[in-house]
Amino acid sequence: MHNKKAVLGGETLIWFYRFFLIVLIVVAYVMIVLNYYTQQYDTRPAEAVLLASRVIDCSTNDGVINLENFSDNNIMRYTNISGTEEYIFGNLSYFNGTIIKKISVGEPDIKPICDIKGKAPSCLEQDYYLLLGKEKVKLELLVGILKIKESL
Amino acid sequence: MMGMKGKKAQGGAGMTLAVASVVIVFILLIYMIFSSLITAGISLKVKKTSIELSEKNQAKTSLEAYLNTPVSITINNESKEILMSDLIRLAYSDRAYQKELQEKTHQILDPVYKEYILHAGIMEIVSGVGRPQLIELYLPSEEPIKVIFGIVGEK
Which terminal Cβ of chain B has fewer Cβ within 10 Å, N or C? Predict the structure, then answer.
């Protein structure tokens, strides 16, 4: 009688143990899946590249820059930026350093923060060799994206 | 005697479960670590891909401008204005123009880029030690001339 009770008690314990293992496995898998799908990724570097390529697309053709299209209004319209979370700065100059035209679209306060490496916002600097008619020119482009809430 | 055997059997089953649970927990931990590593790697991959894309975009636009740049050269004692793409074709068929092609290329690209790679027909310029993303195109000619260009764009 005692032996039967002991066997029954042992089996119950083993069943509890098995149940505990199943719960453990399920919880662990849920945690893994949640960790994978709820992770926030910083996509601002990719967004900055897309904005920069939009600026180039709307103001150049076959490497030749069009000064009429290279303007604040046109670039704001073409890139469709909100104005508070992004900043685009462009400096078009001759090789001797003479500035031809500058553009500044969006939130200019983002620019000084770009110099602080490793901190928000996400900034992209690019240099382009372009033609202005037959003249050789250089375009320095800076794209800064704040969007801290969305990215962190 | 029977009781002893039953106890031993129970002890064995318990031991099996304990070992099995340790193995399961170990496997789950490995899954969790891998999952964390994968998610951490995605953000880095986004950044790396963005830098590569940025370099390619800059190289593509600058190469278009470079090939369309007009330059003055002397052909048969006569000064003529041709495009850089034509000078590449000319240097490809007549090696006497190779030096001029190289000089003109340096005049155009050196003020803009510190590090770049340009292969155009017989000319090869490797400036700097960086390994940029390369783009390539073919200049139409009797024998198409391959042009490869890449700039190190990360500052």
Answer: N
